[in-house]
Design brief:
By secondary structure, this protein is mainly α. The protein has two domains: 354 residues, no CATH class; 120 residues, no CATH class. It contains 24 helices and eight strands. The protein has a two-stranded antiparallel ribbon. A two-stranded antiparallel sheet has the order 3-4. Strands 5-6 form a two-stranded antiparallel ribbon. A hairpin with a 2-residue loop joins strand 7 and strand 8. Helix 4 packs parallel to helix 16 and helix 14 runs antiparallel to helix 15. The longest helix has 36 residues. The protein starts with a helix and ends with a helix.
């Protein structure tokens, strides 16, 4: 196979992996979005004050029903810790967020078998139990107190918004039983689904592309040299130790590392090595650097070593359990995924998934119409939907509030705000949802200052605020022209 042929075959392999798992991804993101919309972060914070067994179970549950994005999970865990949650419980929450979610298990099942999906959940609980047992004995209280104080000091300087945001979040305090029966609640759920897909799209693309090349372009000899085989327990031990190291250097996290895990399984890594690799999405290098920023170098190094240890041990124990039960599948040969289109269950489910995703997108785009969006804003950097009352990060730029899913997005925004604002604030869906009930009388019109068109402000294509006055526009083009040079379109009285 020539160079061009290898590239084409690798990309095709990645595409067919995506084709096989599309419906499962949509299902997983939809379920995750629904639960995120109906379970508030305040509920989590109130019950995570220690690391007793009951609290660890609660932490695991709340993690399972949260976003599977590793960056968002790490930011939320940090936020819970700063606001008084126990550190171990916060870390358990983070582990469960990225390892005990529906979409992860579904994609594992479809790409390499049901045994891996079941092992992921069994091993996940083993890993959480080990973490709850070891972490309090390795991380001293003084280091945690210092880390919390540093984070609180930084938060006080950069995010003085708690009182304001809490008022905005009032709509989300509606009982979940009432919200789950409302169109507003489901439009909020669709917002989480769409924003999670938007946030993770790069991870997913990279994961499938890298997996395609790893499966097709990497010679078998490379895998054989990397993973020991035929040495009994020593092979199993080496594989579960190497798996997290590969995750560290792969830069791929969350669901995006599952296709790569499938390629590693085809390449010869052990059953436990696959499980340890998938667990280790929280050890990807960018995340380790985030831990260092959150908690300091010393604590981050100790934390990463504990993560590596419990991930490897959990993978080894899980392999032992499945070996004893004779459930470890045989070596994978041939194609990982489907290699052609056909009228089969995968195609039918993919079509249904696309229709469902289209409906969710419709709900998302019309959230204000259905009464949704109260207390939410969109992270302008990654596109994630966040509650304004408990957003991990916040800033004010040119008089507008911006909320972020993580400090990573906050830092990106602060470094280059013009790239993300383009002249208008991040959509605050709580304000959008209230537009129909406040402001100008229904039926009143205003004039677009750029083109002179009379428009209903509630149906305007865009808005901008200049010197405390709100202006409505017939199109985004007019809004951008106005923002670029307001004085050009205002009378001397208006401009003053």
């Amino acid at each position: 196979m020539g160079f061009v042929g290898t590239i084409v075959s690798s990309l095709a392999e990645g595409f067919w992996m995506f084709y096989d798992t599309l419906w499962a991804l949509v299902l997983g993101f939809a379920l995750s979005g629904a639960v995120q919309a109906f379970v508030s972060k305040q509920q989590m914070q109130r019950v995570l004050g220690d690391h007793r067994p009951k609290t660890i179970v609660r932490s695991s549950f709340f993690g399972m029903v949260s976003s599977s994005c590793s960056y968002a999970a790490s930011a939320l865990a940090k936020s819970l810790f700063v606001r008084g949650a126990d550190f171990t419980s916060s870390m358990v929450f983070m582990f469960a967020s990225t390892n005990l979610v529906v979409e992860l298990g579904a994609v594992l099942w479809l790409l390499i078998g049901w045994q891996f999906a079941v092992a992921e959940f069994i091993g996940g609980f083993i890993m959480i139990a080990l973490l709850a047992l070891i972490l309090p004995r390795v991380i001293d209280v003084a280091a945690l107190d210092a880390a919390r104080e540093r984070l609180r000091t930084g938060s006080a300087r950069s995010t003085p918004h708690e009182e304001h945001a809490g008022a905005q979040d009032a709509p989300t305090s509606t009982p979940w039983r009432q919200r789950i029966r409302s169109r507003a609640g489901w439009s909020d759920a669709s917002g989480y689904t769409i924003s999670d897909v938007t946030m993770l799209r790069k991870e997913l693309v990279i994961g499938f592309v890298v997996a395609g090349f790893a499966s097709v372009a990497v010679p078998t000899g490379v895998w054989k040299a990397l993973f020991l085989t035929g040495h009994g327990i020593w092979s199993a031990l080496e594989n579960v130790v190497v798996g997290p190291v590969l995750a560290f250097i792969s830069f791929v996290c969350s669901v995006g590392n599952v296709p790569l895990a499938a390629a590693l399984w085809k390449g010869g890594i052990s059953f436990g090595g696959v499980i340890a690799f998938v667990f280790a999405d929280l050890l990807a290098l960018p995340l380790v650097l985030i831990y260092r920023k959150f908690y300091g170098t010393r604590l981050a190094v100790r934390l990463s070593l504990v993560f590596w240890a419990v991930m490897s041990v959990a993978g080894l124990i899980t392999e032992g359990i499945f070996t004893a039960l004779r459930l470890v599948p045989g070596a994978h040969t041939g194609d990982i995924a489907t290699v052609h289109f056909g009228l089969n269950y995968t195609t039918v489910l993919d079509v249904l998934a696309l229709v469902t995703f289209g409906f969710l997108y419709y709900l998302y785009k019309n959230a204000a119409k259905f009464g949704g969006g109260g207390g939410y804003a969109k992270d302008v950097v990654c596109g994630m939907q966040v509650r304004t009352s408990d957003a991990p990060a916040h800033t004010t730029h040119q008089g507008h509030d911006y909320y972020f899913c993580s400090d990573k997005c906050h830092v990106k925004f602060e470094a280059e705000p013009a790239r993300y604002t383009t002249g208008q604030p991040a959509p605050d869906m709580s304000e959008t949802a209230a537009d129909g009930a406040t402001g100008e009388d229904a039926g009143a019109t205003v004039t677009d200052p750029v083109c002179g068109m009379s428009i209903d402000p509630h149906e305007a294509a865009g808005h901008a605020t200049h010197k405390g006055v709100d202006y409505s526009f017939c199109s985004d083009g007019c809004r951008k022209d106005f923002v670029a040079d307001p004085a050009l379109y205002l009378t001397s009285t208006d401009a003053g």
